[in-house]
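G., the chain you wanted modeled:
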Amino acid sequence: MNALQIPFAEGEANLDWVELTQAFAEGHQRSKAQIEDTFLYRGADTLLSRSAWIDGLGIAVKSITIFPGNVQAGRPAIDGSVCIYDDTDGRLAALVDFFLVTKWKTAGDSLLGALRLANPDSRNILIVGAGPVARSLCEAFAAGFPKAKIRVWNRTTAKAEAMAGTLGHIDVEYDLADAVDRADIVVTATMSTQPFIKGEWLRPGHHLNLVGAYKPEMREAEDLALQRARIYMDSFDSTVDHIGEIKIPIEQGVITRGDLVADFYDLDQFAPDPTAITLFKNGGGAHLDLMTSQYIISKYQA
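Predicted structure as tokens:
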């Protein structure tokens, strides 16, 4: 039997952001995923391969190439593939568009964290960044928090203005500290290696949702932000020892492993707290790619 092939437009046609977060919640009620990440580097270029196996759900292998220099040549910096294998006999069951899976997995991951940790009546959401991930986060959070106004800040203001112009329903912020202060939810999606979200900007009731960092040297939030917050993430296994946002502060003694409250395998521990700052780190493991792919397949076949 030939593997199912799902292109971007046809695969996305029937998807729903909130429904995807429900699929994530259900997926984490299954047996815990076996996951493994491998990184290969050549200067600034990266090959990241992520694999996951969830008993009863399937096997996913996602390979990502990240070549930052492509941007100057007018080519995409990121490419990749997603292969889904049948759990019962190991056959290649589906090839799902890499960009479709990545878009919905990444933004849906953060949306689930926010739906469980942020004030459900949040009215002001700040997206930091203006790349493709920031664009999908605008879509996801608009669906998850329909009463909220979406705003965007980016180091290069012109990029933020261009994104706002194409999306049509978001405003541009020009002062980051002021924008954070007025937001209920702050979502960061940058490629920064230097932390820029300051702890003194945050207040009780704030929800900080960190997306961008994915390598050991990358961070978006300063030490004080982590020290002041209750810290959650999608997966301890794919984040704590692999992503600088958590790895560096633990190694430097800024926080301890015991300061990490819960991941998605303990969703009952996720709850809004108006007296606390909640921080969610999106690590984006392959088990979430598998859950996203199976959700896409089910909607495509239906």
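The chain has a mean pLDDT of 95.

Shout if anything looks off.
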